[in-house]
Write a structure and sequence with these properties.
about 200 residues, homotetramer, DNA-binding, 8 helices, 2 domains
DNA sequence: AATGAATGAGCCTTCATTCAT
DNA sequence: TATGAATGAAGGCTCATTCAT
């Protein structure tokens, strides 16, 4: 354990630490990491500036916790959905559900998603957190697909690519910046491609 | 023209402005935008701190030029390749070429790519630059595909998605972080999917 | 209240804010506003550079407080003297007192007086502060003079002019730069003129 | 002579030096000394930045020349008027002329007047230039008054004070900031006071 | 004599982090 | 544990002055 960093054991302290993370989560989402100042996080969390350093090593440490929360919030619903599945299941409706769930999750966290991913490139430990998440999703989803009777070759590769494709679509549909694009048609194309890969 | 911003007309000045952009390009790639300080850009370019502000309005203005260069460097080879095509052409070999070209381009600019895209989320004018690029590529590529005889429906949507898919693959293959992934198989999967979309 | 500007409520903080103003007062007097750098103000006040911006919005804000103090220091003794007067009073001894009080006040603040007045010409809000002071003195003094039985015509105009004349004399006598001038005789001339105006 | 400072002997060079002084004169008047940047002076004078340092030691040196010009412009008309006088002359109309001439001169140079006087307090050589002017005016005017038959005592003191009084009035009347002041009445009061002093 | 690009010291201000209470 | 005032290093930017041409 880091020197001097408090390990909150009491109820109130846990609340406080979580409040700080939540406040940071919100501010990072809105303003980005670099434009958010520590004292504003403290203020938003309703604590003093100083105590932030009682719970976190430094500003980056807060970011690290924010990412953990983010990862959990984003991944959990999808992981739970996947876990809940049992044969027989229509691949198409399953893929449609996953796409729509991802879309929904991204809609709620669009800014943070991008801010965090961008930080991942200069901050290697943040990157590792994301890689862990990707691994976890890929392995779990592949296993489940096999359980459900999918016997496509190169399954892990396809699942990985599927994650990317779904996220790309979600991203595009959320920002909705190109007026010549029919996002519903795009979504159908994504789903049909996934069906093809995993049928 | 902004007051006081030098418009380089002489050979040496053009060199200098380009040297500053190149230095910023490199430093932004390595350390990110916020962690790069102006005096380091100047030092890396072999000029004084002051003259940087003779060529650029402020630090963000340098970033803007870096993006312009980046966009050109990344997009040009692919755009040129696409322009050069004329029927008859094998869709598969064409897709393979585009995938490999993208992979190559990303290999050279991986970090910057991500840093710039991340900035795009807090800086709207940077975002617009990228949207312009995406529009340009989508429209041009769609047009060319039609010329080559492709009569797939929702072509623009597919091209847009294809850009994303190819970039996702390129990204994954460059970082090569998941040891259970066979990146060659992933690539084949990408190419076959594209063939399916555009055949 | 400006965002982030500390409103000092505790004893120590009030001391600190006043110490900064006092230090600025001194340095502005000696070196002028533009030649005084913020870090020197902080050093002279025995505080860190950063905390200065906890109490003041920016450097000009410090100047503004300095002016307030200056105005109070300069005007108060004279205003108090005038208030204290009640009939019957010898116009001559009253004028003599005012002249000598002004002289004394200016002796202590000669440089700052000039520096502040000079800034007033490029900085309109500073100018307004001085105009307010002039108005206040003119109106109060005129009122008092009438109370004391003075029924000169154009009283406000004369009071205004008197302020200027007294200040001119004070200024001249303090700097004492012309060896052919007998400053005592000059003073008598000022006083006799004032007596003439207000008798 | 200062090392490297050009002593312009040719027609064109004299023009150029004067053009720089004129440009500085204007810019200092408008923006103040500290807010005027050397390159803008050069631009306004239609010369290069570098050549300014061929004619002047530094920025303060330009200021010094500006003051010389200013002093000449301000003082000349009044000095000339005074020289032109010969007995018999009405003291009152003479005083009225001087007041109105001063008023006119100040109207054209109001800003610069203040800017220069303020600088005089931190810059001792500038101050000396003003003292020289005051001495010159005081001595000349006193001499002339005596020639014209004035035998008031403490003449130099009165002339000195008169300069100040007239300037105060001119200043007040130009800025015209106090709506309860009748500036014509103020002017009459000034003139009658002067008549009293010098009759 | 002239140009104007280049220099770099130094300024104001911010903010992550510490520390007295 | 908690506060929030205080610290001070560092960043972006300006501008008087110099210098290669």
């Amino acid at each position: 354990m880091e020197k001097g960093i408090r390990q909150p054991v009491q109820r109130r302290s846990i609340d406080k630490k979580e409040r700080i993370i939540k406040a940071a989560y919100e501010l990072f989402s809105t303003d980005g990491y670099y434009s958010t100042v520590t004292s504003d996080i403290a203020k938003a969390a309703g604590v003093s500036t100083g105590i932030v350093y009682g719970y976190f090593k430094d500003k980056r440490d807060i970011l690290f916790y924010v990412i953990k929360i983010y990862v959990k919030e984003i991944a959990s619903p999808i992981m739970e959905y996947i876990s809940s599945l049992s044969a027989p299941v229509s691949i198409e409706s399953m893929m449609r559900d996953v796409v729509e769930l991802t879309e929904k999750m991204h809609k709620q966290n669009a800014n943070l998603h991008n801010i965090l991913h961008s930080l991942a490139f200069t901050e290697s430990d943040i990157n590792e957190e994301f890689l862990r998440l990707e691994d976890h999703v890929t392995i779990s989803a592949s296993k489940k697909l096999r359980e459900l009777g999918c016997n496509a070759d190169h399954l892990e590769e396809k699942v990985h690519l599927a994650m990317n494709l779904i996220q790309s679509y979600a991203h595009e549909s959320i920002y909705d910046k190109h007026d010549y694009i029919d996002y519903d048609a795009m979504k159908e194309n994504v789903i049909q491609t996934l069906v093809l890969w995993f049928k």
